[in-house]
Description:
This protein is mainly α. It has helices spanning 20-32, 36-39, 48-51, 63-71, 75-81, 94-98, 105-118, 122-128, 132-141, 163-166, 169-174, 184-187, 192-204, 207-214, 216-244, and strands at 7-8, 18-19. It folds into 2 domains: 16-119, Alpha-helical ferredoxin (Fumarate Reductase Iron-sulfur Protein, Chain B, domain 2); 128-240, no CATH class. It is 56% helix and 2% strand. It has a two-stranded antiparallel ribbon with strand order 1-2. Helix 13 (192-204) crosses helix 15 (216-244) and helix 14 packs antiparallel against helix 15. It is globular and about 70 Å long.
Amino acid sequence: MAQVSAAIGDPISDAPILEQAKLEAVFADIQAHPLYDHELNGCLNCGICTATCPSAHYYDYSPREIVQLLWTENLEGIYDAMQEKIWACAQCYTCAARCPFGNSPGGLVMIMRETAIKHGMESAKEVLRPFSRVMLKIISTGNQLAPNMITADHFPDWGPNVSKVEAPLAVLRKAIPVPTLHTLDTAWEVNLKTSIELYTIWEATGVLDALETIDQNLFDVITDIMEEKREDYDDWLEEQEDDDD
């Protein structure tokens, strides 16, 4: 009978030894994702996905490698890729559009990212740490960007061609069907009932549980805000009942 090592490690590295059980638990969560079988169908190792991947041109990242690691169930390689490589994907899904087997490396990366968050991996914490303010706004208001924020001054990385799209932006903003998104002030003015409904969604879908794993401080802030708004809403409901009486 073949022997299976209880731990995996590099004898010439100072990195901590990885328990086999941990690697298996991470992979089990990836496989258990409802989209996993839809995103992974097989791989001929043709490399079309990597050849068309924008991130592969600038980072140590290959969509083909991601598919191969998962297809061959390379547990150590999967875990290693989750420490850095999966965060290089731009989620453009060019890979999915080009794959002759119908694989979606971008979709697999998203599953791996969710699993990294679930397991509280340091890579996930480092990537999400600069976006605490963004997450706070999205969770509390449903958005963090309004059309009047989309200007050349705010996005210098757009380059010289931004002038070609800057002129009609005012017209395009008026075509947006939701009036509250026209300006930042109104976009962030969310009534009490809507805020509570948003919080309820984040709770029911496990978003807040994941946030607690990754950023305890932000979780505590959002929880405090949520409890205060729920108390305010309960007070408002009581006032309405008193008025009816």
